[in-house]
Design a protein that fits this description.
Number of domains: 2
CATH topology of the largest domain: Glutathione S-transferase Yfyf (Class Pi), Chain A, domain 2
Strand content: 5-15%
Distance between the termini: 8 Å
Shape: globular
Bound molecules: glutathione
Strand order of the largest sheet: 2-1-3-4
Radius of gyration: 18 Å
Length: about 260
């Protein structure tokens, strides 16, 4: 139980960068209040508090704003009884280098998800979370306009999607290769930020049940996306990511500050 004000996590609820931050905080046993905003509307708080256009943001009670999921992950790791980064500098660098690749892979998994949801208004309910009603009403009433803008803004087009598919498949192969010596986690026998980041970035296409907000099922995806999602789920690296969700997403370790 915490005394005093709690940190505020500002997210686009469905965002896997938000999920990366949420998981890092949850695992460290840190209490926080999550505030949801929808795409475009999140620009307001993002600029106001973080000085840039992306969320998640973590607003600490003292007034500090952590304005990137990686910064939030590092902060949560430092509060956690079992930190997500190794103490050894070279080992830590290896985790961070892998994370940087996985964050870029996350842009491609997100592109694939948007190629589905921007063409399927039935998925809108999953997007809303607890965002203010007026933001939800905008999406309900102006889906066509929002969709056109978002497709251009996020480069959801056949050429970019072809690159996304290649990047996703290459990343899954690389991860499977890294695991092929039988290690339990990406960097060895211990769960690190690389595992959390890989699983969270993969969640956009693997749709794990344990994700921080409800997601649709792969089987519901539109033609042209569904077969890829179902194929990728069977990949050994995807099986690993889904195992991380099953075994690690709800694990709460002691916070050193609790
Ligand atoms: N590197 C950032 C990326 C976050 C990010 O791309 N957030 C998206 C939501 S999925 C966003 O806020 N996009 C708004 C925009 O790009 O205009 C992080 O890890 O926090």
């Amino acid at each position: 139980m915490s005394a005093g004000p709690l940190p505020r996590l500002i997210t686009i609820p469905i965002s896997h960068y938000g999920e990366r931050a949420r998981w890092a905080l949850d695992r460290a046993g840190i209490e926080y209040i999550e505030e949801h905003h929808l795409q475009m509307f999140a620009w307001g708080p993002a600029f106001l508090h973080g000085g840039k256009k992306t969320v998640p943001l973590l607003l600490l009670p003292g007034g500090t704003c952590l304005n990137d999921s990686g910064i939030i992950l590092d902060w949560a790791s430092r509060q956690c009884a079992e930190p997500y980064y190794p103490d050894d500098a070279a080992e830590r660098r290896a985790v961070e280098e892998l994370e940087a690749k996985l964050v870029a892979y996350g842009v491609e998994t997100r592109r694939v998800t948007y190629s589905w949801v921007l063409n399927d208004p039935s998925t809108l309910e999953y997007n809303y979370g607890r965002a203010p009603g007026w933001q939800q009403a905008f999406f309900r009433n102006a889906f066509g306009v929002a969709r056109k803008f978002a497709k251009q803004y996020l480069a959801v087009n056949p050429a970019a999607l072809a690159i996304a598919h290649e990047t996703i498949e290459r990343t899954l192969d690389d991860v499977a290769l890294q695991l092929s010596d039988g290690r339990a986690f990406l960097m060895g026998e211990r769960f690190t930020a690389a595992d959390l980041t890989f699983a969270a970035m993969s969640a956009a296409v693997l749709l794990p049940r344990e994700y921080g907000v409800p997601l649709p099922e792969a089987e519901q995806a539109i033609d042209g996306v569904r077969d890829k999602l179902l194929e990728w789920r069977e990949h050994p690296a995807a099986v690993f990511a889904l195992r991380l969700y099953r075994d690690e997403r709800r694990r709460v370790l002691k916070s050193t500050t609790a």
